[in-house]
Specification:
22% of the residues lie in helices and 23% in strands. The protein is α/β, with parallel strands linked by helices. It has a single domain (3-211), classed as L-arginine/glycine Amidinotransferase, Chain A (5-stranded Propeller). Strands 1-15-14 form a 3-stranded mixed beta sheet, with no helix packed on it. Strands 2-3-4 form a 3-stranded mixed beta sheet. The protein has a 3-stranded mixed beta sheet with strand order 5-6-7, sandwiched between helices. A hairpin with a 4-residue loop joins strand 11 (143-145) and strand 12 (150-152). The longest helix has 11 residues, at 71-81.
Length: 215
């Protein structure tokens, strides 16, 4: 099985509770279905909360954490992920990193502030391109990206070619949780599998699977 639908603590925004890459996954306590990712999995909290997927973002090379990540949380993640994954805190005005950065192992789209921050380039070790989705700087909230494909904001059809050039994988537009455009909030995925909320419809599931290369 390469997908799992679930609800955590009554919420379908399961993408806010995990970061999945092709080398590792970081999940919150109580997150279900992480076995579909097929990679070593680490359970933790950030700032004492379960919102791993909101505050952190990463790829197989590294993991970026917000400035308020405690020293203990940082040390714990570095120990659990090992020397092969660079884990760093980043000092920025915005701490919801997932909203402003979308990355895989081939490229990265980021808002202006993060695109200019050298730590992002150093940790993710891919080309960083500044951009927007539908005129909004919160590019990460409107994209779910893996090394096989991406799913973008349902009205971003005119940006697909540019996004494919940046992320170096094919992509499609779609939605999650019965029409919501905030893709990342409702979807955690890597090349092996994905987890989404119970509200995500059959039509949306089919679109996710087309976009991320499971069909």
């Amino acid at each position: 099985m390469y997908f799992y639908q679930t609800r955590v603590d009554g919420e379908d925004f399961v993408g806010l509770l995990a970061v999945a890459t092709d080398a590792y996954a970081v999940i919150s306590p109580g997150f279900k279905g992480s076995e579909v990712f097929g990679v070593p999995t680490v359970q933790t909290k950030i700032y004492g909360t379960k919102l791993i997927g909101l505050f952190a973002v990463g790829n197989s090379n590294g993991l970026l954490l917000p400035s308020f990540t405690s020293d203990g949380e940082l040390a714990d993640l570095r120990k659990k992920l090992g020397d092969g994954v660079q884990v760093e805190r980043i000092e920025e005005e915005y701490n919801t990193l997932c909203n402003f950065i979308a990355a895989n192992d081939k490229g990265c789209l980021a808002s202006r502030e993060f695109a200019k921050n050298p730590i992002v380039k150093d940790v993710l070790d891919v080309e960083i391109v500044e951009g927007k989705i539908r005129g909004h700087p919160e590019v990460g909230s409107y994209l779910a990206v893996t090394n096989k494909g991406f799913l973008a904001h349902p009205h971003a059809d005119d940006q697909l070619k540019d996004l494919e050039s940046i992320l170096k994988v094919p992509g499609k537009t779609g939605s999650v949780n019965q029409g919501l455009p905030f893709i990342r909030a409702g979807l955690a995925a890597n090349s092996n599998g994905y987890v989404t909320g119970l509200m995500t419809t059959g039509i949306e599931l089919n679109r996710i699977e087309e976009a991320l290369g499971f069909l």
